[in-house]
Amino acid sequence: MHVRTVPTAFHARVIAARLGAEGIVTDLRGNVGGPYPFGDVSVWVPEDDVDEASELLLADEVEAAFCPHPDDEEPSPSTRAVVFGLSRRRLLAAVGLVFIVCATLAAHVAIV
After folding, report:
1. C-alpha distances in Å from residue 6, one per residue of 11, 37, 44
2. pTM assigned to the model
3. Residue 112 pLDDT > 70, yes or no?
4. What Rg value do the Cα atoms of the chain yield, rounded?
């Protein structure tokens, strides 16, 4: 019986792998193979496994809804502003650049 239709073969294979990990055999129908892997793919399971497959997929969707999105996370310490709105990495790069410029000027003055 049909449990889900997804827009790509990759997504269908992910679902098939998830259900297969629980011992549920799947059948993918639609644009699964071929040179152009675009188009809807339907995931089918045996009639005896429909309820279990639907529960697993629903549980995965609910769990994913509570996982933080990478864009919602706090910035890492290396990207957090430290001084003058610069992160540690950019501040270190700026200090290094100033050091190189000062060393070049000092060498130029010593030569003249």
Report:
1. 6, 12, 12
2. 0.58
3. no
4. 28
Give the pLDDT of residue 78.
55
For residues 18-45, average pLDDT: 88
Q: Are residues 22 and 51 in the same domain?
A: yes
Q: Is residue 12 domain-shared with residue 54, that is, in the same domain? A: yes
* 55 in the same domain as 14: yes
Q: How many domains does the chain have?
A: 2
Q: Kindly give, in sequence order, each residue whose CB lies less than 8 Å from that of residue 76, ignoring residues fewer than 6 positions away.
A: none
Q: Where are the beta strands (DSSP E) in the chain?
A: 2-8, 27-30, 38-44, 81-83, 86-87
User: How much is the pLDDT for 91?
Assistant: 81
